[in-house]
Amino acid sequence: MSRSEPIVRAAGGIIWRERGALEVVVIHRPRYDDWSFPKGKCEPGESDEDCARREIAEETGLSCTLGAELSPVRYRDRMLRLKQVRYWAMTPTGTLPTWDDEVDVLCWLRIGRAARLLSYERDAGVLDSFCLLAGT
Fold this sequence. Notes:
Structural class: alpha+beta
Number of strands: 8
Helix content: 25-40%
CATH architecture: Alpha-Beta Complex
Number of domains: 1
């Protein structure tokens, strides 16, 4: 990875709630047939924080509040571009009337089940950083 190589900026979050046990949102994207946390690319001039809120709303239909920042990840995307994703712990504050069709399933899962379902090892690292923050 070259220092001069452009980086695709993206942001997202681990949405969580307490319902007898800690639960997090995991989404399925039919286009990639994968299970991950909601995230997406930043628009030109958009802050990472605003991108995280927008992507969460677009992919889940949830409006959320940003909490603590979690561990970021860097990897090569499907087009071999260097991509960096910043994540935040996020709590839902309400639902929105519509969301996009990029996601076909949204699940609230306990931490262990979420960890087993995730398609990418890098997402497991983000979940680990959330667990450290949450004290689980």
